[in-house]
Write a structure and sequence with these properties.
mainly beta; Beta-galactosidase, Chain A, domain 5; 7-stranded antiparallel β-sheet
Length: 319
């Protein structure tokens, strides 16, 4: 992995737009969706540090940690055994740190592909921006292929960091009453693996908190939770941006991506000195855990030459 090349090419952007909504994608920065702008309002977390080429082993908290990345083949760094031998997967996976190839683009659509370096996996993503009755619809269609000659384990999670302000509201289907805790800054919600009530949760120190209500950045909150496996009617989640009068609704196919990761960060990450995230990440995922090394009934393997596809849709509408 140390021999993988790091691009030093100019950080050019690809822009797709439709009316008052525009989407900026940077293929050299891991195919990052760097901006979703609606009527001049930015919906994604701005960079915490200058955007620059990444290294194969760079921790995510040493990057700009902004926008929308793709986490493949793992979210957490881990070591796994494969038929070809042991493999180390870096923090937040491979694809946010390698250049993506632009396959084609138009004013409202752009398609890319990129290859992992820890495992023989190729991901293609076609992103299309259309209008809807109530606003806009940003659709991402994914195609993952095993390009190697042995079976390959994998997991995927979208990583769209939607900026949030105190008073904004997270919406989940009414049938979701509890989530699994992956991690909580300072242990405020408990220990990894705990079941946490939604939306009103009991704090580890006693008392209660409304997890659906965004908090100010001085609250220093950083929690990661998972819902699922989800049923057909539980195929959405949303963030209401109250001041902007907008609802950001994420839709997905629970048959392909049956879990939902929820990262709520109000000034609680990264731990290093400097600017912190203030965002809510709504993350359709194939697993209810961040590490590919943590296996279970959710685990996936692709045979040589096998492909799998899935969609993800972001609806932006007025409220």
């Amino acid at each position: 992995m140390a021999d993988h090349p790091v691009s030093t090419a100019p950080l050019e952007n690809v822009l797709i737009s439709n009316g008052d909504c525009s989407v900026t994608i940077n293929p050299r920065l891991g195919g990052k969706i760097a901006s979703i702008s609606v009527r001049g309002h930015e919906l994604l977390q701005p960079p915490l540090a200058p955007c620059a080429p990444r290294t194969p082993t760079q921790p995510f908290d040493e990057s700009d940690a902004s926008g929308w990345d793709e986490c493949l083949p793992s979210v957490a760094s881990c070591a796994i055994q494969t038929p070809s031998g042991p493999v180390s997967i870096p923090d937040h996976g491979d694809l946010w740190r390698v250049p993506w190839e632009l396959l084609n683009s138009s004013s409202m659509c752009a398609a890319f592909r990129a290859c992992c370096f820890s495992l023989p996996l190729e991901l293609r993503r076609a992103t299309t921006l259309l209008t809807s009755e109530s606003g806009w619809r940003l659709r991402a269609d994914y195609l993952l292929t095993n390009t190697g000659d042995v079976p390959v384990p994998w997991s995927w999670a979208a990583h769209p960091l939607f900026t949030a302000e105190a008073g904004d509201r997270i919406l989940l289907p009414a049938s979701i009453r509890a989530l699994r805790l992956e991690g909580s800054g300072g242990g405020r919600l408990g220990q990894p693996g705990d079941r946490i009530a939604w939306p009103v949760a009991t704090l580890a120190t006693g008392g209660q908190t409304d997890l659906s209500l965004a908090q100010p950045p001085e609250s220093a909150i950083g929690d990661k939770l998972f819902a699922g496996p989800l049923e057909t009617g539980e195929n959405w989640c949303a963030l209401e941006r109250v001041r902007l009068g907008l609802r950001i609704r994420v839709r997905f196919n629970p048959m392909a991506t049956p879990y939902l990761g929820l990262w709520i960060c109000y000034g609680g990450w990264p731990a290093r000195p400097g600017t912190k995230q203030t965002c809510v990440a709504l993350e359709p995922a194939t697993a209810p855990v961040d590490s590919l090394a943590q296996t279970g009934p959710w685990s996936h393997t692709l045979a040589p030459g096998q492909s799998v596809s899935w969609p993800m849709i972001v609806e932006i509408e007025s409220i």
